Every structure is written in structure tokens, then in C-alpha cells.
Amino acid sequence: VILELQSLEKLDLSKTYLSRLPVAFDTLANLKILDLSFNGIEGFPSVLANFKKLEWLGLGSNHLQALPPAIGDLTTLKELSLHNAGLHRLPPEIGNLTQLETLTLSFNNLQDVPSEFSNLQNLKVLDIRNNIFYVIPDGVIQLENLHTLNLSDNRITESPSNLQRLKKLQSLDLSHNAFTTIPDGLFDLTG
After folding, report:
1. 32, 55, 80, 151: least surrounded by Cβ within 10 Å?
2. Residue 107 CA: distances (Å) to CA of 28, 81, 129
């Protein structure tokens, strides 16, 4: 029945025990908001690459393990939540999501981001807490429009000297890391 609602713009299927999406799911091409969080979805549903109007996508707390290059086809996304998705790396195509304003990648197993991550120049909020970062990635330091950055609960021991590039930063969480001294440039942030 839901698949017949072709004018549907918002659909919340969170916490519904889904393990996969039906192939006919692409009939919902007008969706702008889709929440599939807290399910048992294994792997990124390939049908989602067809959603050219999607602005908000929640896939957190699923068993994605990896993102396919097709994630880069979702160029209208403004908010993407991939918390606790079992991710070990991000594909370079993540850099195609240039309209993103909020990205949540917390509680994964990320150690770095691809260089294309720096293309996300509209990003204002980045949550990458509870991963395995040992340094703040260069791709993050290049996101000059960030106003909120959460890097807590990683393994960061030192910060790059160019942290002051984040001139618009209003909130920075570096708690629960392995700093032995205050990072260089931390007090040079002016917004």
C-alpha cells in the first residue's frame, strides 16, 4: 500500500525491523525525507540511489558495513545520518554530496576520510565522535563553514597546526581523546 503513495514526501520506517527494502521501493521517487534508522538493514540499499529529491536520510543503527559509490548520486541531500552503521571507510564519492549541511558518522570504525571529503563546503555540523581517529583528518580541517564539530571519544593525540582555518566554528568537542597538551591553534579560533 505504501508503495502506491507516489506523492509521498516523508516516510519514517525507523525501528520497524526491516532487513531490506523491496525493489518496488523506487516508486516513491518524490521522497524528500526518509528515516530507516534502527532496523536490521544489511548493506546500503541500492534502490536509494534513485531518489533524486531526497534531502534527509537516516540510516543509522543498521548493518551497512560500507557505502557504495552510488552514495554520491544523492546530490540533493542536506542531512545524512549514518551513526552506528559499522562503517570502516567512506568512498571518495561522499565528496559529491556538496549540499550536505549536517553529517553524522558517530559510533563507527572510521580512521580517516577520503580527500574528496573537503568538497563538502556547505557542511555546518559534523559528528564523528566514537570512531578510531588518531589525528584530525585534513579533509575535516578544510571544511571552513563548519560551526559544530564533535571529535570526542576518538584516539586523537595531537591536532594539526592549521585548526585555526575553521573560523566559523562555534562548538568543538575534543573530550575523551589522548591529548597530553592543549592542541596548537586551539585558542586561535575566531569566528
Report:
1. 32
2. 30, 11, 6
Answering whether pTM is above 0.70, one says yes
Cα-flanking dihedrals φ and ψ of residue 75, to 5°?
Answer: -70, -10
* pLDDT by position in tens, the chain (length 191): 677 788 999 999 999 999 999 878 888 989 999 999 999 999 999 899 889 999 999 999 999 999 999 999 999 999 999 999 999 999 999 999 999 999 999 999 999 999 999 999 999 999 999 999 999 999 999 999 999 999 999 999 876 667 888 999 999 999 999 887 775 556 665 55
| Residue 23 vs residues 28, 98, 105: alpha-carbon distances, Å | 11, 28, 27
